[in-house]
Design a protein that fits this description.
binds iron/sulfur cluster; 26 strands; about 775 residues; 7-stranded mixed β-sheet; Rossmann fold; Dimethylsulfoxide Reductase, domain 2; alpha/beta
């Protein structure tokens, strides 16, 4: 039984005891809680280093300050991620902060249906009273939140703990479900923990780089630069139906039929086995289930695979031989795999190739999932949605007791069940079970699959609360209450990037108007809800970082060896795990090599650790995985047909993906920049093969109508052979695109299948 808010002490009895700086009274004096200030620790005209807030690469940027505020950004040269590089989004990251559509004051929708400016006190009082009323009437399952991979890890941890342990919300998920859930489940099942094994240095040390469903040039341009720094003249193999920018630069491009990846990967596994191109010692010592897997893939002969994938037998052999010849083969995947109807098994088919060839735990190898958002990895471990804080399990009594102890809360406050996933939350809204929804830094009215279903679902809610830095997103249009949030650069915290590196975000600008950091909004909610005593230790992001450390102790993601933000800054971010034991070992080794004599914790000792810090660390060098027996698992399943195939009525296959490196997701931020807007077409365009265009009578830049079973849109035709006849491509960033997409989800990760559905195309 989940306790409800009614079980908690009432606010009035707690205000006097609450010693934190952010109380109801102080909200009326904004200057008191940092609204008009950047932290004193930043010198007024210095340079502050902070991790970029767009993608998961996690580049470090130097913010150049004048009178304590950032006026300019340049890429950090000494940071081990980006080595002095940044993509256009990074250079322009300050621009959205001064956009005219920033949310600057709380808003409440009045009885005439208009959003009206309100005070924080009015907004919080309304939020709490309406949420309490809904919970009291319909139970704890009637309220949900949908979060994000865009806010700091400490904020995600606060939201997750506040939502589930404080307010008693049963169901919370985040938008990483749309991009990363597949990798989480695939790693958990195969390795025993959600543990991407690589470091970016592997891009430079492979001699064979296999990219599956990843347009690295565009989606992760700085990672692509790391590939270009590789001195091994690597074979670059791109598996993608489209001839993407990355495919154009590859040594092998395998333009397989959409959603035939699983068949291809099983076919390659079979070829490797039949030719004896496997690492039997690694398989025998470090894995389980290989014989069953080998039996499963025997049916995927080169001839059958060629028919089903549209590739030639020669292409299959060349691919398999390249893996065999490679001394260090790395396999990388991202959304082209993750956003599919059988995505978890496809990701695991990639993991299987790495395991069976012993390409893991060594430099230049790995089965490597690349993340999307700047802090999807923080969300994966600490958002308290898909798992209990610190990569624990809500269903495990021991884990619940450990986390309750680490937080100093009664164990009964921790739910004994998992949340609904994002799609299940949306379905529960449709069914009328969930009556109130709190959105934090996400915009499902644009980004959710089969978009037309979203407004209909929102209309069924009794309360929709949107917490966002902008006041005009598609989701704000449906909101009853809006909380104005500070943006990246206006607050502190940490992000975790794709290679597990924890980096620091700093406050180098002042949030406009009454906007508050998400962290302080959560503190306000705790205060108004009356559960602030539960969070009396959660006084600042860095204080929460110390709580996260406690939660991580003994886990594969143990970060107990990180002192705090200064240490992260000093060594260029730290990849998890970094336990207190690892820290001691490095300290002792450093001391020995320097002749000893420094006392632990002294400045000299810290500098020594910094100088000797191993800043490119990969997992599984010892061949031990996180299952109880230390072995990885071969996991497989028969491929399934896509949920919607092309037919006479809808004869085209729609592919979706990133458009340019100047665009980010729903464009709420990138469209603020005149520079970035010049780097991509303003209007929605569709890539159409010239043969199809001729057949349809469509000329260059002609207008076409594209229709799926769920909706339709108009776009300008860009005639290009990058898509094959019978296929079209739409960039995901434009609001109309999700009118078309299919709502199927992978059964294990519940990640939507954005990448593929059937459409028809007509000339306008
Ligand atoms: Fe920022 Fe990603 Fe560009 Fe690096 S590659 S500057 S992290 S958006």
């Amino acid at each position: 039984m989940i306790p409800t808010a009614a079980d908690l002490p009432k606010p009035s009895s707690l205000f006097r005891e609450f010693t934190g700086p952010l109380t109801r009274e102080l909200v009326q004096e904004p200057g008191e809680f940092g609204l008009g200030k950047v932290p004193a620790r930043l010198k007024p005209d210095a340079t502050a280093k902070l991790v970029c807030g767009f993608c998961s690469t996690g580049c470090s940027l130097n913010a150049h300050l004048r009178e304590g505020r950032a006026i300019n950004l340049t890429p950090a040269t000494e940071y081990p991620v980006n080595l002095g590089m940044a993509c256009p989004k990074g250079w322009e990251a300050l621009t959205p902060l001064t956009a005219p559509n920033r949310a600057t004051t709380p808003l409440i929708r009045d009885t005439s249906g208009r959003l009206q400016a309100a005070s924080w006190d009015e907004a919080m009082t309304t939020f709490v009273s309406r949420l309490r009323a809904i919970q009291a009437k319909h139970g704890p399952g009637s309220v949900a939140w949908l979060g994000t991979g865009q806010i700091c890890t400490e904020e995600l941890a606060f939201l997750g703990a506040l939502g589930k342990f404080g307010i008693g919300i049963l169901h919370g998920d985040g938008n990483p479900r749309q991009c990363m859930a597949t990798s989480v489940v695939a790693y958990k099942q195969s390795f025993g923990f959600d543990a991407p094994p690589y470091t970016y240095q592997d891009f430079e040390e492979s001699d064979v780089i296999v990219l599956i469903g990843s347009n690295l040039c565009i989606a992760h341009p700085i990672m692509w630069q790391r590939v270009l720094r590789n001195r091994n003249n690597p074979e670059i193999i791109v598996i993608d139906p489209r001839k993407t920018e990355t495919a154009m630069a590859a040594t092998q491009h395998l333009p397989l039929a959409p959603k035939s990846d699983l068949v291809l990967l099983y076919g390659i596994a079979n070829l490797l086995i039949q030719n004896g191109w496997i690492d039997e010692t690694f398989i025998g010592t470090h894995t389980n289930g290989f014989n069953e897997f080998a039996g499963h893939v025997r049916q995927f002969t080169p001839d059958t695979v060629a028919v089903q994938t549209g590739l030639t037998v020669a292409q299959l052999y060349r691919f398999a031989e390249s893996i065999h010849r490679g001394k260090a083969v790395s396999f990388w995947w991202t959304m082209g795999v993750n956003q599919g109807h059988e995505s978890t098994r496809t990701a695991q088919a990639i993991i299987n190739l790495a395991l069976m060839t012993g390409n893991i735990g060594r430099a230049g190898t790995g089965a490597n999932s690349i993340t999307g958002q700047c802090n999807a990895m923080g969300s994966r471990l600490f958002s308290n949605t898909t798992n209990l804080l610190g990569g624990h399990d809500f269903l495990n009594a021991g884990h619940r007791a450990k986390i309750a102890g680490a937080l100093g809360i009664p164990v009964e406050r921790i739910p004994q069940q998992n949340s609904f996933a994002y799609d299940q939350i949306m379905d529960a809204i449709e069914r009328g079970e969930i009556k109130a929804l709190w959105l934090i830094a996400t915009n499902p009215a644009h980004s959710w699959v089969n978009q037309r279903s979203v407004p209909a679902a929102f209309r069924k809610l009794e309360l929709l609360v949107v917490q966002d830095m902008f006041n005009d997103t598609e989701s704000v249009a449906h909101a009853d209450i809006v909380f104005p949030a500070a943006a990246w650069g206006e607050k502190e915290g940490t992000f975790i990037n794709s290679e597990r590196r924890i980096g620091v975000v700093k406050k180098v600008a002042v949030a406009p108007g009454q906007a508050l950091s998400d962290f302080n909004i959560f503190r306000l909610v705790a205060n108004y809800w009356g559960c602030e005593m539960m969070f009396r230790e959660w006084t600042s992001p860095e204080a929460v970082f110390q709580i996260m450390k406690r939660c991580s102790a003994g886990q594969p993601c143990d970060i107990t060896g990180i002192d705090g933000y200064e240490m992260l800054d000093a060594v260029g971010g730290i990849q998890w795990p970094f336990s207190s034991e690892q820290c001691s070992v490095i300290g002792n080794r450093s001391e020995q090599s320097a002749g000893g004599g420094r006392s632990p914790g002294s400045t000299d000792h810290c500098k020594l650790i910094t100088d000797h810090f191993p800043n490119e660390r990969r997992l599984f060098a010892d061949g031990r995985f996180h299952h109880a027996d230390g072995r990885a698992r071969f996991i497989f399943e028969a491929p399934k047909a896509p949920p919607e195939c092309k037919d006479a009525e809808f004869p085209f296959e729609l592919l979706t993906g990133r458009g340019t490196s100047a665009q980010w997701h729903t464009q709420t931020r990138t469209r603020c920049s005149a520079v970035l807007r010049r780097l991509h077409p303003e209007e929605l365009y569709v890539e159409l093969n010239p043969d199809d265009a001729q057949r349809l009578g469509v000329g260059p830049n002609g207008r076409v109508r594209i229709t799926s079973r769920r909706g339709s849109l108009e776009a300008t035709a860009f005639l290009t052979p990058t898509v094959r006849p019978g296929q079209i491509f739409l960039p995901m960033h434009y609001e109309a695109v999700n009118r078309l997409t299919h709502p199927a989800v992978d059964p294990y990760s519940r990640q939507p299948s954005y990448k593929h559905c059937a459409v028809r195309v007509k000339r306008r």
